[in-house]
Amino acid sequence: MRSVGAAGERAGPARPQEGIFETLLVADGRPRRLDTHLRRLRRSYRELYRSALTADVRGAIAAAIADRPGYLRVRVDARPERPDRVQVVARNWAPPLPVTTQPGLVLRPVRVASGAAHKFADRGWIDRIEAALPDGVLPLLVDPAGLLLESTRSNVAVARGGIVATPPLDGRILPGTARQAMLDALDAAGRRYDLDAPRLDELPAADGVFLTNAIRGVQWVRAVEGVARWDAPDPVAVALGARLQPA
Description:
- The protein contains 6 helices and 13 strands.
- The protein has 247 residues and is an alpha+beta fold.
- It has 2 domains: 87 residues, Aminotransferase class 4, branched-chain amino acid transferase, N-terminal domain (D-amino Acid Aminotransferase, Chain A, domain 1), CATH 3.30.470; 146 residues, D-amino Acid Aminotransferase, subunit A, domain 2 (D-amino Acid Aminotransferase, Chain A, domain 2, Alpha-Beta Barrel).
- The protein is globular, with a radius of gyration of 18 Å.
- It starts with 5 loop residues before the first helix and ends with a helix.
């Protein structure tokens, strides 16, 4: 097996030698943000394993989704010992719900040193965090200084006064494709945003909190346990959800 480089040795609780993966949404044969997903996969592979991923990932995805209408969740796995091959699995999936029809998520703050900048196949540390929470409650990862990082499967954003704040790509969170699509949409609309990590103790003054995810789209948060509650999604989350909804 090819040895894991220095970046992998600093990967925290995950085991990089088990590989990395991508998940993307396909709507009626059209992969969403495919180029962005492929760039992230190849960048992670090179950073972690010090070699190029040479597999025909685009072709493997095309073969897996051929003649399959509707919505699919596609997972692409790449292992360090086989840069010439990926495994692609496509499953039937429900379309993302419009923000206005969602019940809202409940998050519980969980203190951690860091999230993860890569999508590791080893999800044991995430499974342990999620298993410790009650059904229907998702983790909100917060660093020791009280700065928001991400959820275990989504990026997080906070809206206040029409301005979105989301944590920066400082090596402690995943560079989410839906997060980038959100920022691109804000740029296109000429809307200001802040790439500064919001503080947990600032949430009571926020107009809303929402998550962004490549499969689930924009999901609004109705409560951060012990911190803040909201009765309805913020208009910014509603607008972004509509903008990022598959056509």
